Amino acid sequence: MKCPFCSHADTQVVDTRVSEDGDFIRRRRQCAHCEKRFTTYERADVNFPNIVKKDGRRIEYDKVKLLASMNLALRKRPVSTEQVDGAVERIEEKLLNLGLREVASTRIGELVMRELKKLDKVAYVRFASVYRSFEDIDDFRALVDEVRR
Predict the structure, then answer these.
(1) Do 67 and 115 form a contact (C-beta atoms < 8 A)?
(2) Rounded distance, CA 149 to CA 88, Å?
(3) Alpha carbon separation from 140 to 74, 116, 117, 149 (Å, rounded)
(4) Phi-psi category of 112—alpha, beta or left, where left has phi over 0 and alpha has psi -120 to 50?
(5) pLDDT digit string (tens) for 89-147?
(6) CA separation (Å) from 129 to 69, 109, 122?
(7) Per the CB 3.0–4.6 Å rule, which of 88, 94, 118, 127 could disulfide with 73?
(8) What's phi and psi for 4, nearest 5 deg?
(9) DSSP-assigned beta bridge partners for residue 43
(10) Cα 106–109–112 angle (5° rounding)?
């Protein structure tokens, strides 16, 4: 790896550590030329499918957007960050296991609703009411009745 300080090509790894959650490896390196140290991170390169929106636009998968929508539904609900992270990991795992290059946004919405239903019924109803674009109170009532069963 090239040194970020002097651009010399010869650097040596002096320390390697795996992150607490095992998601990446942290390496401390030292340049053989200028002897300065720097850190690099090694992560798995995973390609998520592109998302096809209802209007036909294609966008890149964005974990931040997924987390934001789930956190909005879970606002002020007794669900831990670890539980939300676990739900996001399960959704991402399902997306990767599909083996597709593109996935409809509706499919992701269904995966989110399934996870929210397991985590918190109120958050599920919040998300579903926006996601399904209810036309009237009867649609909302039907969803609440479904959750009660």
Answers:
(1) no
(2) 25
(3) 18, 17, 15, 15
(4) alpha
(5) 999 999 999 989 999 999 999 999 999 999 999 998 888 888 777 777 777 788 788 88
(6) 13, 12, 11
(7) 127
(8) -75, -10
(9) 24
(10) 155
Contact predicate 147/125, CB 8 Å: yes
Amino acid at 8: H
- HEC sequence for 72-127: HHCCCCCCCHHHHHHHHHHHHHHHHHHCCCEEEHHHHHHHHHHHHHHHCHHHHHHH
Task: Look up the pTM and report it.
Answer: 0.66
Task: Give DSSP secondary structure letters for 17-39.
Answer: EE-TTSSEEEEEEEETTT--EEE
> Nearest Cα to 95, choosing from 71, 73, 112, 120?
112
Q: Where are the domains of the chain?
A: 11-43, 50-148
